[in-house]
Specification:
single chain, 87 residues, mainly alpha, 3 helices, 11% strand
Length: 87
């Protein structure tokens, strides 16, 4: 049996137990492709790493917004957004 603990922002910690090493290996491979591996006391991220993470987050947000637009056909003006945010 293999146990993997994932600590994510916003208190989304999860524990996973895999009954086979193969399943655990597939999970770890997916993490290796999509996350930055750190040690117990990780060093600070470099500016380049931070910028890359921010860029990837922006790409996800844009894709989400485009999917919402394609689903609803609704777009918002800058004035509508400012009013909604109270700016």
């Amino acid at each position: 049996m293999v146990e993997i603990i994932v600590k994510a922002p916003k208190r989304k910690n999860r524990s996973y137990v895999f009954s086979s090493d193969a399943e655990a290996d597939r999970f770890v491979e997916m993490l290796e492709k999509n996350a930055i591996r750190v040690k117990e006391n990780p060093p600070k991220l470099t500016r380049e790493q931070i910028e890359q993470l921010e860029y990837e987050e922006d790409v996800r947000d844009v894709k989400k917004a485009l999917a919402e637009y394609e689903r609803t056909g609704r777009s918002y003006s800058l004035e509508e957004i400012k009013a909604e945010l109270g700016l």
